[in-house]
Amino acid sequence: MSSFSSDLSSRDYTVNIGDYFGRGWSIFKQQALLFVLFTVMLVAIQVVIAILPFPLGARSEEGGVGGILNVAFNVISPVLSAGYYFVAFQVARGRSVSFNDFFLGFNKFLPIFLTALVSTLLTAIGFVFLLLPGIYLAIAYLFAQPLVIDKSADFWQAMETSRKLITKKWFSFFALLLAIFVLNLGGALLLGIGLLVTLPLSVCIVAAAYEDIVGLNSVADAEI
Length: 224
What we know:
Blueprint: H1 3-9, H2 17-30, H3 32-51, H4 68-92, H5 109-129, H6 131-140, H7 144-151, H8 155-167, H9 170-189, H10 195-213
Helix pairs in contact: 1-8, 2-10, 3-4, 3-10, 4-5, 4-7, 4-10, 5-6, 5-7, 5-8, 7-8, 9-10
């Protein structure tokens, strides 16, 4: 385990949910248009895939879910979702950003993909066999992707560091994610349009928590 993993695993901290919502909003509003446009793009891609007929798209008379584009999108979706963190971290550092920064995850495709794949599989197994382990892991892996993005950790190192760090204040993080869920529920109730704001805002809130607890590298991700 690297020194940063050891340091983080032994770190003490306080979870300040109100501060993270405030800081997350500050990050989001500085590039609100870019965040919303990127979210619209992701939604539009999924809509197109859903209406295109099989085998290209996901629409099938038999009711099956598949298709070439659907599979391809599922493979790259973790990297696209990571784009929110790349931009949020750059804003938090006080750096300028552009729409292209949402695609910086492709520079770290393998660790981001493996982190998403393995953490999802382990969490799913936890839910299938025993509900509580699944809930535990779903919360505990919250910082896994940010650690890959910001610290260039490998997927297992990032997952274990996140798990050990968050376990110390697991119930506080549960409360944080519950508050984020309520935020997105409110966005969904606004005819779903509110999700265009609340979804990227949610990532900015998690980025704010990461910034406070872990601390951001001073070097921009685009320069790594």
